[in-house]
C-alpha cells in the first residue's frame, strides 16, 4: 500500500527525517512509535503531502506521490487525522462530517457515509446536532476519525488518537481502529505515544529515534524488546 524510500524531510535547516525506509502492507495496521521529537508527526505529514521530502520518495500503491499536493493525495484514497484533531468547533457533528466529504459531489453517497460513520460511532449519532467544540476530547477524536472516513479512504493515517483521553476512551478508540481495519479493510498507519496500546493492535511496528528508524519488525517482538520496554513502555 505504502512505501517510504530513504525519506529526508527538513523544516528550514532542521533535519527532521534522516532517511526513513518503511513499508505499510495492504490491509494491515502498522504502528509508528518513538519519544518526543523523534519525527513521527513529520513522517505522517510527509506521507500525506503536507511536507515535501527533500530527498527520497513516498510510494502509494506503487505510484510515487512525493511532491504531489495534499488534496490530490486525499483523492487517491489517503486520509490523515492530524494530532490535536482539529475539528470545526463552531459547526455541528453533521456539518463537520459534511465538510469531510467536500470532495464528494453525490448527496446520496454523502448521506450513506454519514450513516456508515454512525454505525462505527453511535455516540456521534446521538450528538448529530451538537457543536463540535462542546464535545468531550474522546468524542472529538471519534468525530475526527469519522470525518476522515467520509472520503472512503484505503489508507488512514492516525496521529496520536489516544492523546489526552481517559483510559476508557483510549480503549474505545483502539477498539474502533481494530474494527475499521477488520470490517472495512482499511490500512492504518498509527502514530502513538501510547506504545503499549499501539503495539497490541499493530502487526508491524517501527521505532523512530531522532529522525531515524531505530528498530522495526513484528509488533509483538518489538513489544518484547528490552530497549523498547525501557524507553517506551515505562519499565526500568
Ligand atoms: P511528539 O511525539 O512530541 O509529537 P514527534 O515524534 O511527532 O514528536 P515531530 O513533531 O515530527 O516529532 O518533530 C520532529 C523534529 O522536527 C523535532 O525536532 C521538532 O522540534 C522538529 N519540528 C517539528 N515541527 C517543526 C516546525 N514546524 N518547525 C521546525 N521544526 C519542527
Automatic annotation (TrEMBL):
PANTHER family per UniProt: HIGH-AFFINITY BRANCHED-CHAIN AMINO ACID TRANSPORT ATP-BINDING PROTEIN LIVF
Native source organism of the sequence: Deinococcus irradiatisoli
PROSITE patterns, per database record: ABC_TRANSPORTER_1, ABC_TRANSPORTER_2
Superkingdom of the organism of origin: Bacteria
GO terms for biological process, alphabetical: L-amino acid transport
Residue stretches in coiled coil: none
Pfam family of the protein (one): ABC_tran
SMART domains: AAA
Keyword Nucleotide-binding: yes
Name of the protein this chain belongs to: ABC transporter ATP-binding protein
Keywords: Amino-acid transport, ATP-binding, Nucleotide-binding, Transport
InterPro entries in the cross-refs: AAA+_ATPase, ABC_branched_ATPase_LivF/BraG, ABC_transporter-like_ATP-bd, ABC_transporter-like_CS, BCAA_Transport_ATP-bd_LivF, P-loop_NTPase
Boundaries of every ABC transporter domain copy: 2-235
UniProt-listed SUPFAM superfamilies: P-loop containing nucleoside triphosphate hydrolases
GO molecular function, a single term: ATP hydrolysis activity
Assigned protein family: Belongs to the ABC transporter superfamily.
Amino acid at each position: 500500500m505504502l512505501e517510504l524510500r530513504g525519506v529526508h524531510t527538513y523544516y528550514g535547516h532542521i533535519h527532521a527525517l534522516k532517511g526513513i525506509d518503511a513499508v505499510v502492507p495492504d490491509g494491515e495496521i502498522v504502528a509508528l512509535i518513538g519519544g518526543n521529537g523523534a519525527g513521527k508527526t513529520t513522517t505522517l505529514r510527509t506521507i500525506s503531502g503536507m511536507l515535501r521530502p527533500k530527498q527520497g520518495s513516498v510510494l502509494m500503491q506503487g505510484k510515487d506521490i512525493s511532491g504531489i499536493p495534499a488534496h490530490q493525495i486525499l483523492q487517491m484514497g489517503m486520509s490523515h487525522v492530524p494530532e490535536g484533531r482539529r475539528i470545526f468547533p463552531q459547526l455541528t457533528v453533521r456539518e463537520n462530517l459534511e465538510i469531510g466529504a467536500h470532495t464528494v459531489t453525490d448527496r446520496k453517497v454523502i448521506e450513506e457515509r454519514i450513516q456508515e460513520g454512525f454505525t462505527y460511532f453511535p455516540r456521534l449519532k446521538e450528538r448529530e446536532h451538537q457543536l463540535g467544540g462542546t464535545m468531550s476530547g474522546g468524542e472529538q477524536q471519534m468525530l475526527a476519525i469519522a470525518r476522515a472516513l467520509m472520503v472512503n479512504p484505503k489508507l488512514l493515517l492516525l496521529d496520536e488518537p489516544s492523546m489526552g483521553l481517559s483510559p476508557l476512551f483510549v480503549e474505545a478508540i483502539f477498539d474502533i481502529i481494530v474494527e475499521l481495519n477488520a470490517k472495512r479493510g482499511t490500512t492504518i498507519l498509527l502514530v502513538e505515544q501510547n506504545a503499549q496500546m499501539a503495539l497490541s493492535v499493530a502487526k508491524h511496528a517501527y521505532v523512530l529515534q531522532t529522525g531515524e528508524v531505530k528498530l522495526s519488525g513484528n509488533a509483538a517482538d518489538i513489544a518484547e524488546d528490552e530497549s523498547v520496554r525501557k524507553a517506551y513502555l515505562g519499565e526500568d
